[in-house]
Amino acid sequence: MLSATRASLRLFNCVSQQRLASTLVVAEHDNKTLSPVTLNAITAAVKMGGGDVDCLVAGNSCQAVAEAAAKAAGVSKVLVADSKDLEGFLSERMAALILDTQNTNKYTHIVAAASALYKSVFPRVAAKLDVAPVSDIIGVKDSDTFVRTIYAGNAFQTVKSEDPVKVVTVRGTSFEACSESGGSGKVEAVTVCELPVEMSSFVGQQLSKSERPELASAKVVVSGGRGLKSGENFKLIYDLADKLGAGVGASRAAVDAGYVPNDMQVGQTGKIVAPELYIAIGISGAIQHLAGMKDSKTIVAINKDPEAPIFQVADFGLVADLFKAVPEMTEKL
């Protein structure tokens, strides 16, 4: 009888722990609007299961972002950490805040989009928690098991984590965005802990402005490569993109050659995109570039070299001189 009672208690404790398990999604934003990749991260967090999904909005004057996050489907609660010390989203301070939030709420999963910011923040969080981070996942099998790519996307790796806290970054293009409306999460202000201020300070930032869609969230992307031969010739890409209402990207070769700034780079060391339509112009199709765009729904390639690797992943290919073909396409549009 005593043995059965102890077994029942163990089962009850296990069930209780499952009910108490919850996930924290750390939002990405600019203090004004919620980044679309956060909605993809919320979808991944819901798939991990285990209980409620909370969202941490940390920044300076970011109340509007918190209200937007509260409306997202699947979010139970939004924690708002609003402080001037969080201006610029410095990695050391963001990590300290996330750790303080974890110490208070004891989440089983801490999740964010695999962006440049959280690729810097989350390894710090994982190190302090003494767990192994699981980075850039493309699939969720269960609360402990995740799928990620290796070898520039040429192989899939299934990772099972037995750590008490899973620190996970999510490749946004691999998950559908949750609905921006329909949620009823409550917004709760949290006290910002003492943040490290002596290691670094935020001086300012210079952001490139464009009327074109943001590259990572654009439904159509037109990218140019080394075949354009100069930065001036990228006007062909811009003109076509404007006709299509598309975002503009570039290969690493074009960026390294100085044709365009590096924030336009698509690839393993650039931005990962998966638009409805991806048009690759003058891009040979190196593995590094393919890793950043091969999940696009439809891929169109224009290159004068019929043996270019890009044609192996393209749904439609045109072997032609881009300096003739692209102006003709733009004119017909």
Quick structural overview:
The protein is of the alpha/beta class and 333 residues long. The chain has helices at residues 2-20, 36-48, 63-70, 91-105, 116-129, 235-244, 252-256, 287-293, 322-332, and strands at 23-26, 53-59, 77-82, 109-113, 134-140, 145-150, 155-160, 166-170, 186-189, 220-224, 247-250, 277-281, 298-303, 316-319. It has 2 domains: 14-189, 3-Layer(aba) Sandwich (Rossmann fold), CATH 3.40.50; 215-332, 3-Layer(aba) Sandwich (Rossmann fold), CATH 3.40.50.
Describe this structure in words.
With 333 residues, the chain is α/β, with parallel strands linked by helices. The chain folds into 2 domains: 14-189, HUPs (Rossmann fold), CATH 3.40.50.620; 215-332, Rossmann fold. The chain is 31% helix and 22% strand. The chain is built from 9 helices and 14 strands. The strands form 2 sheets. A 9-stranded mixed β-sheet has the order 7-6-5-8-4-1-2-3-9, with helices on both faces. Strand 1, helix 2 and strand 2 (53-59) form a beta-alpha-beta unit. Helix 4 (91-105) crosses helix 5 (116-129) and helix 6 packs parallel to helix 9. It starts with a helix and ends with a helix. Residues 1-19 have low confidence and may be disordered.
